[in-house]
Amino acid sequence: MTSDSTNLRHVCGISGGKDSAALSIYMRDRVPNMEYFFCDTQKELPETYDFLARLEGYLGKPIARLNDERGFDHWLKVYGGYLPSSQMRWCTRQLKIKPFEKWVGDDNVISYVGIRADENRSGYVSTKPNIRAVFPFVEDGLIKEDIMRILEESGVGLPKYYEWRSRSGCYFCFYQRKIEWVGLRERHPDLYEKAMSYEKGSSEDASAFTWTQSESLAELAEPARVAEIRAKHEASASGAARMQANRRLVEVFAELGDSDGGERPCMQCHI
Ligand code: SF4
User: Does residue 169 lie in a domain region?
Assistant: First the structure.
């Protein structure tokens, strides 16, 4: 795959996850004029920003940070205090897709998307006629093992949050599993507190909305509840570990995001 026109922009979105990072590494020498971008909600994990810096070092050029200058808190007010959810995912629209489409403008663009050949999912495909999505890993038959090898051989490795979380995205992302909320509280208690404060704000709106189903983050942080979540996770993790005796934890988490069978998160955030 090569760059084919001076008027055509080639862009590669980095989500902070492993697949898009591997794609940027894979494309670096194939498309030298590639523009890399990251839609920054400014609510990302510190590990994600560290990973981007590492990736920039390998790519030898900056990853453009795209954001909506009004930010999450502005949009939360616009949406009446309702926290985003899988049913009402305004965050992706306002903080990821719109900034990307603004950055592209009316230019003709080829957008490289890191869906793998062993996945059965579709990526973000813009409805704008000037943006054409391509899927190099699908075209070239690259699967998860290839992605892990690309990251390792480049020296970039995996984002550090894979030690405790299976996906990239905002620290309060509602796609997190319970054990990942426990991990957030342990690794980043300040961010957990901030996520909790959003719940308080929304309950004043009489909607009693919470980030995670059926309980508030205050309830989830109760010692008995944390112990219960841990026990449940350890039981399923030890089953997985028996099957994957030689895998490092960081790799197991990196894989969970692909195979946990839960609801599919937004591709714009998590590829
Ligand atoms: S990572 Fe989660 S909370 Fe953040 S924009 Fe994406 S879907 Fe929304």
Answer: no
Choose the residue to mutate in 89, 181, 194 for probing ligand 1, maximizing ligand atoms within 8 Å of C-beta: 89
Q: Which atom of ligand 1 is nearest to the CA of 43?
A: 4
Residues spanned by the domain of 123? 9-160
pTM listed for this prediction: 0.86
- Does residue 153 register a pLDDT over 90? yes
Residue at which a domain ends, from 134, 160, 186: 160
- Which of 26-30, 59-63, 213-217 is predicted with the least confidence, judged by mean pLDDT? 213-217
Closest ligand 1 atom, residue 265 Cα: 7
| Helices (H), ranges, the chain | 18-27, 46-59, 71-78, 90-92, 98-104, 136-140, 144-154, 178-187, 189-204, 217-220, 223-243, 249-259, 267-270
